[in-house]
Amino acid sequence: MNDWTSANIPDQTGRTVVVTGANSGLGAETAKALVAAGAHVILACRNTTKADAVASKLGPNATVAELDLADLASVRSFASSFTGADVLINNAGLMAVPLRRTADGFEMQIGTNHLGHFALTALLLPKITDRVVTVSSGVHQIGRIQLDDLNWEQRRYRRWQAYGDSKLANLMFGLELAKRLKDAGSSKQSFIAHPGYAATELQGRSENFTDVVAKLGNKLPIAQSAADGALPQLYAATMSGLESGTYFGPTEFFGLHGAPGRNKYKKVADDESFRARLWAESERLTGEKFDVSAG
User: Where are the domains of the chain?
Assistant: First the structure.
């Protein structure tokens, strides 16, 4: 595992993978690697123009479908025409953006990164045959989720805290999904991955001084390419014999770069009672009841 690269991806011929946010960055690199390994990849993206440009370079095994995770109507529309896949990779996300609201009134980061993917997975899971991979971040360590104010309606908004909360929610969701699938006797699996420090378009959208810092950081040796940042989610999505509920990330320099492997995470994520309450609140907000035994 210590020298695992995309060249080690097992043959994916005959498999179908949905990758959200595959129009750029980690998602585009994930789609590229999977197509190269023989998979059919559905690029599920809000910006279909950019996604079409990516798909055109990947060939006939890449198709584009419109999906805006910041709009539950779009999520439901995508799900209504979905016919099935082996793997769902919940990759799309926003980082440290100014306070904005989704079409459903959610704070944009928790709404897109967590609630949108929660609803999507709930709707697609009956037609996913193998596994779900949810992308978190090392920044989940600063997360302090407040279930009574998940959408930042009462607190003074802090963009980095909101991002950390959303990534902790991604982690907790992936762990809780793994537990519920196991308890239901399902053969399906759930994994969580993070890219470390990867130079992508995710940085530079805070609209404050941190954009300058992020752009400088992308040029430092601690940063790795988007292709390398995609390796943990590719590993989680394609390798056999993995333990459901495992959190994968880079294994060098405090998890910032390096080959993928098992990573440690903030232990609050192991609080099953809190995870259950987050799950229930996510169901309430999205209006999607999550049946892990369906299909």
Answer: 6-284
In the structure encoding, which two tokens stand for residue 78, read together? 């995508």
Short-list 27, 190, 226, 126, CA closest to 42: 27
DSSP states of 238-278: H-SSPPTT-EEEEEETTTTEEEEEE----GGGG-HHHHHHH
Instruction: Please check whether residue 10 is in contact with residue 239, taking contact to mean a CB–CB distance below 8 angstroms.
Output: yes
Q: Examine the pLDDT at 264 and tell me if it is beyond 60.
A: yes
Q: Which residues are annotated as catalytic? A: 163
The whole-angstrom separation of Cα 142 and Cα 111 is 18
Residue indicated by tokens 């690269």: 5
CB atoms within 10 A of CB 209: 8
* Tokens read off for 269: 């994520």
Extract the runs of DSSP E, i.e. beta strands, from 136-253.
189-193, 247-252
pLDDT band with cut points at 50, 70 and 90 for residue 195? very high
Per the CATH hierarchy, to which homologous superfamily does domain 6-284 belong?
Answer: NAD(P)-binding Rossmann-like Domain (3.40.50.720)
How many other CB atoms are there within 10 angstroms of residue 293's CB atom?
A: 12
Say if CB 118 and CB 286 are below 8 A apart: yes
Strands 16-20 and 85-90: parallel
pLDDT, tens digit, 9 for 90 and up, residues 163-194:
999 999 999 999 999 999 999 999 999 999 99
Cα 38 to Cα 16, 85, 287: the distances in Å are 9, 14, 36
Q: Which of 248, 268, 279, 212 lies closest to 4 in space, CA to CA?
A: 248
* Amino acid in the structure at residue 278: L
What is the C-alpha separation between 260 and 53, in angstroms, rounded? 28
State phi, psi for 30 to the nearest 5 degrees.
-65, -45
Measured over the CA atoms of residue 162, residue 143, residue 22 and residue 69, the dihedral's sign is: negative
Radius of gyration from C-alpha coordinates of the chain: 17
Neighbouring C-beta atoms of residue 187, cutoff 10 Å = 10
Cβ atoms of 214 and 95 closer than 8 Å: no
